[in-house]
Specification:
The structure is a homodimer of 189-residue chains.
Chain A (H helix, E strand, L loop, with lengths): L4 E6 L3 E2 L5 E2 L5 H13 L4 E5 L3 H15 L2 H5 L1 H7 L2 E4 L2 H12 L4 E5 L9 E2 L1 H10 L4 E6 L6 H4 L4 E3 L13 H13 L3
Helix pairs in contact in A: 1-4, 1-8
């Protein structure tokens, strides 16, 4: 058995520079990049989480352009990537949608540039083995702005080790962090 | 000895959809994302290659904003990432600059979504071992648009295997491909 893996790009609740909860703005390039990476590594779904209806409408318009509009005729590969993407109002709504689609509730996985205090970290090798041997679906959360708010971090079933803790610099874009996460957990080797 | 590694994001000569050589436009998010990934994985330099002076000026303005302008005061981490970035007019000019800085000419490494015909592919494990054991500097080329033109591909000393050849979909953004490349070759394990 291999777990079916979903990911969510979270725009609320995430942290501002001071750690306070905010709703961040959806970025066009994030919608595309994470969809392309998720599709390449065989993820089952990519959820763009925002509580702001106008922001979800923006995602709908992007998806419509690439599913039915000029984009679909010009760059059909993009249609295939974005077909696994959907906007949704909250992480809990994503969990409910995945539970309905997959038949059981997903485990919540997170990774962060700095390990949250008091949490047991899972190595990437162990995470990879866990996905390969488990039937339970998984939802990997990625935080925008300055990362997932602690209320989400506290709910994680699996906290993956930071990607590059030995570096003197660790500020990957969420696009780069997601690509590396998928590759480490699911990539061809 | 470990090789000092540079990367270049190439905007000319790259391929359009039909394979013809073009000069592509520089994208702000590419300048930032590759700088952040390159800095996180310890690269020595990140060159943004365009023969168009107005495009290189755009990069200079971005760099100036983050080195000396409001950006530097607001997000100092970004300053550190972009300090390894420079625009340059051609791959050959990048090779010359690296040769002067490192004391010897760099080997040219490339990767591509589709392996170029007639080239011997290097596995990622072998590439990683080669970097760790060699003192010769390396310049990894990434192509924008539809990838590096064959005139550059033909000059490569090392052609890395495609990132995810077993996938039924392989259209990573250059931002994602670069992040995965650095992680596979230089990442903490």
């Amino acid at each position: 058995m291999t777990a079916r893996v979903h990911c969510a790009l979270v725009h609320h609740p995430v942290r501002d520079r001071a750690g306070h909860p905010i709703a961040s703005a959806i970025t066009n390039v994030d919608v595309h990049d994470l969809a392309r990476s998720a599709r390449t590594f065989g993820l089952a779904g990519y959820w763009v989480v925002s509580p702001i209806a106008a922001q979800r409408l923006l995602v709908e318009r992007i998806l419509d352009h690439w599913a039915h509009g000029a984009g679909a005729r010009r760059v059909p590969e993009r249609t295939r990537a974005l077909s696994i993407c959907a906007p949704i109002e909250s992480v809990d709504a994503a969990i409910a949608a995945i539970t309905e689609r997959e038949g059981s509730a997903p485990a919540l996985w997170v990774t962060a540039a700095k390990a949250p205090p008091g949490k047991t970290l899972t190595s990437w090798a162990d995470g990879r083995a866990l996905l390969a041997s488990s039937a339970r679906p998984v939802l990997i959360l990625f935080g925008t702005a300055h990362g997932l708010h602690s209320t989400l971090m506290d709910r994680a079933d699996v906290v993956l080790a930071p990607i590059q803790p030995g570096s003197d610099y660790n500020h990957l874009s969420v696009r780069a962090a997601a690509a590396i996460t998928f590759d480490r957990l699911l990539g061809d080797r």
